[in-house]
Structures are given as C-alpha cells and as structure tokens.
Amino acid sequence: MPMTSAADGAQWARRRTYAIISHPDAGKTTLTETLLLEAGAIRLAGQVRARGENRRTQSDWMKIERERGISVSASVMTYEYRDLIFNLLDTPGHEDFSEDTYRTLTAADCAIMVLDAAKGVEPRTLKLVEVCRLRDIPIITFINKFDREAMEPFELLDDIQDKLALDVSPMQWPCGSGNRFKGVADFKTHEFVLYKRPDDSEVSRSERVPLDGEAIHQVLSEDELTEVSEGVDMARELLPAFDRKSFEEGHLSPVYFGSALRRFGVHELLDALADHAPGPQPQAAAKGPRDVLEPGDKEVAGFVFKVQANMDPNHRDRVAFVRLSSGQFKRGMKLKTEGGKTLSVHNPILFFASDREIADEAFAGDVMGVPNHGVLRVGDTLSESGKWRVSGIPNFAPEMLRRARLKDPLKAKHLKKALESLAEEGVTQLFRLQVGGEFIIGAVGALQIEVMAQRVADEYGIDVVFEASPYDTARWISGSDADLEAFIDRHKTAVAEDIDGDPVFMAKSAWEVNYSQEKFPNITFSATKERS
Length: 532
Ligand code: G4P
Hints:
Elements: E1 15-22, H1 28-38, H2 47-58, H3 63-68, E2 75-81, E3 84-90, H4 98-105, E4 110-116, H5 123-134, E5 139-144, H6 153-164, E6 167-170, E7 172-175, E8 183-186, E9 191-194, E10 208-210, H7 216-219, H8 222-238, H9 244-248, E11 252-257, H10 266-276, E12 283-287, E13 292-293, E14 301-309, E15 318-326, E16 328-330, E17 334-337, E18 342-344, E19 349-351, E20 356-358, E21 361-363, E22 367-372, E23 381-383, E24 389-390, E25 394-396, E26 400-406, H11 412-424, E27 429-433, E28 439-443, H12 446-460, E29 464-468, E30 473-478, H13 481-490, E31 495-497, E32 503-507, H14 510-519, E33 524-526, E34 528-530
Helix pairs in contact: 1-10, 11-12
The structure holds guanosine-5',3'-tetraphosphate.
C-alpha cells in the first residue's frame, strides 16, 4: 500500500486509525485499557469494562455478552497522544462475529497483533492476519504476558514467520519470563528497561539503565546479562532490521514484548504506534470521478463499516459508523449515498475513550457515528457529490443457515421488519426464498443466531425459533439475464433474494454448488459480495 505523507501538517495527517487483533484471551481488552491509561485518555483501570457495563444495562441483548463474558460489539475509541489523534477500532474477539471484525478492519490503517507469549500464533490470529493482508495493513506485534512463563523469544519469532509468512524485526529483547522476567533490552536506545510491578494507581514509567555502563551489573546477574547480550547479538545477525517501507507494505512487523496486565512495555508500544503507524491511507473506489479517494481531497467522503441498531431501546435509532476517507466534515453537512439518498448530518458522534461528543468537524481517518432511521447500511459510501462508491467492504457467504419459525403466525409482518432491521446492521444476513417467502437467516456461527433470537424477543417482543434449514451453503449468483433466468427456472425452490434483492443460490451442500457450476458454466457463484 503506498503511504501518504503526513508532513503537510494538515488535520487529517494527525489521524492514526488502528485496530487490535488477537485470539481470544491473548489480552486485547487488557491492552486496550492499559494503552488508554498510558495515553492519559482514561484515569482508572476498569473504565473500558465499566463502559461496557453501562452499555449492557442499556440494551438487554448484551445479556449474552455478560453471561458468556465475551465482547460482541465493535466500537471506536478516540484519544490524543503526542499531538496525534488515535482512533482505536475495537473488534469483537469471539469467532462467531468474525464478519463484523473483518469489516471493521477495512476501516483501519494499521493493526496491533497481540500474542500470548505462552501460546504464540493461534488460529484466530491467523485468520485476522489474512484479512489484514487483503489490504496489506501494516502490523505491529505485541507479545503479551511475559510476567508468566513464556516460549523462548526465537521460538515465538519463528512461529510468526512460519505461520503468518510475516518477516519480524524485534525492537527489543526480553530477559527471562514469569518469575525470572527482568525486563527488555531496547535496540534503539541501547538501554535495559527494568520490569517492576507497578501498583494499581500508578502510570508506569519504566526505569532504564544503559546496557553498556556499570549500572547494568546492579540490576542483572552476569548470567542474565550474557543471556540478553547473546540474544540481542543473534537477533541482530539473524533477523532483519526495522525497515519502514517493508513495514508499511505489510511485509515486516516490528515486535515488542511486555505484559499488558502489569502495564509493562505498553508505553513503548504507544510510542511505537506514534512513531510508525501510518496516517490515513488512500481509499480505493469502485465507482466515482477517480479510482481512489485521497485523504487530502477536498470533497468529504466516507463509508459505513458498521451499523448498530437500538443502542437505546426507547428509540428505534441506529448509529452508522462512518470512516471518513477524505475532506473536512462540518456538522450539518448534507451527504449523499451513491444510491441517491441524502442525509443532513446534524448530530454526528465522536467516541472518546471515556465519553461521547457531538462533533463539529471531523477529518479523513476519523470515525463518526451517524444516527439515522435505517437509511444507512453497511457498505454505503457517503459523499458530498453522491458519486463515489468505495470498494472492499465485503459480505461473506454465511456458514450457517437457519429457518425462522414464528410461534405466533399473526406476527409475520412484525417479524419481517425485525429481521430486516437487524440484518441491516450487517451482523446476520437475511434471505427470502422466492417460493413460499420463508426467511432464512445466515450467520457465521451459532452465537450470532442466539443473539438474534434474543434481540428479536427483547427489542420487538416476538417469539421466534431459528430451526435447522435444508440449506448448507449460500452463493450469490450473477450472469447474463438469459443465463440467470435459465438457472433460476431450474432451481426455483432453492433461489432466494438477499436484503438488496440480489439473487442467491441456497445449496444443500458444497458439492451441489460445484455440480451446478459444471451444469451452468456461465453463472458466477460468489462466496462474497461487495455491498453497493
Ligand atoms: P481478550 O480481550 O484478548 O480476550 O483478553 P483479556 O484482556 O480479557 O485477557 C484474558 C485474560 O488474560 C484475563 O484474565 C487477563 O487478566 C489476562 N491477562 C491479560 N494480559 C495479561 C498479562 O500481561 N499477564 C497476565 N498474567 N495475564 C494477562 P482472566 O482471569 O480471564 O480475567 P480477569 O478475571 O483477570 O478479568
């Protein structure tokens, strides 16, 4: 990805929009909190979770979140550090919500990958890095939990290189782990950063000792010093030095070590982000006056990567999360979708770490919440001219298809409305069979279906059961009118419409998709669809 220069001092150039990716339990929530603490955005540990609690009391559907202790809703947190404005996109960790996570990553310019030092690269890390790769998002690695027994540093780095095919450049070298953890050697300053457990209220400012001087002998034993020096020498010899270009192209990841829980190494990570994370990147456009939107362009344009409905159960409101790609947004501005819908944006919300505020202005790289009554959908592009459509916001074919069955058939109309409005959030997908008009819900995993049933009950007062359906796989179909007509004619009972009215083939197995492809070679079967 070509990087855009931040040197012109423009407001947009101060934005750093990033996401934290990890396998569940690696420490993403803890790191989010400590990063915000170190940046001075929140004062007390517990606010990220506490904020979560508040949200939970606002909407009942998060009961599942609370019961299961997982985080399922993505949001954004904005904070300032070193004259830069950081927008941290929170991504749900549970794998059933991966589609939401994937879309959130389309709004990020950089990612922090958190690994558990005892486990290295885990399955979900792998999937998320694949997604980052689609857009060559630069990745900074933080190896967490060094206060516990960890794998050997070289083993960890090999794991990243082997499993993720990502070059690594350690910026530090750890000394020991668990009870023997002493801290890290900093390659750049040639100092040793001492690990000490901070007490809870203290913002950690680690003590640093020059690696070459006398003082190092007071803090490390001879054995420890030898271990670190050898590690540093070997790492320097065997692994590439940090190279900005290679990092920005997504090929090489700088690696930091620490403990989010003990707040060790987090300040260094915060500085690494400020030093290395790129500013807002050009956004490829599928349609528009040109094929790319530049952050410095005058026209205001952005895209919706997430919609959250019913944040307040008393109002049927929705908030569309819009990542601005270009221009300087001013409150009250009229923006248009490519489909011709016009929206006056009077109350755009900026989400600060401990509060939310109405935004008077926002710039490329920023994420604003736009309250609306269902006009905005995931994948929509908003711009002043209405001529743009950004590319790369995918819908993925669901891996689980369930039939919606009402306990009270008189509520069919209500159910349609409920399912449609929840599908518009983009968390689940909705298909309606052409014959019979039955609703089929598509999801990535079982938990989404559970959340859906609970939300339909809580927010719409409708009792619905999602039962097994005969279908196993959904594929969007396209081709010439004649070819499509022939296909649909032959598969009348297995063709449905998605929420945009596009035709979808509901297959009973992957085999059936292959078989149909052979029979109808002119039809394209797609596992993803880019929303227009
Ligand atoms: P996640 O969002 O990636 O799922 O992980 P989260 O931060 O919730 O952390 C998962 C568990 O790992 C938590 O423990 C957390 O306290 C612990 N943890 C995170 N970072 C570190 C670290 O640097 N060192 C150590 N030793 N532990 C860490 P838990 O017992 O599951 O939850 P809790 O009761 O502590 O909240």
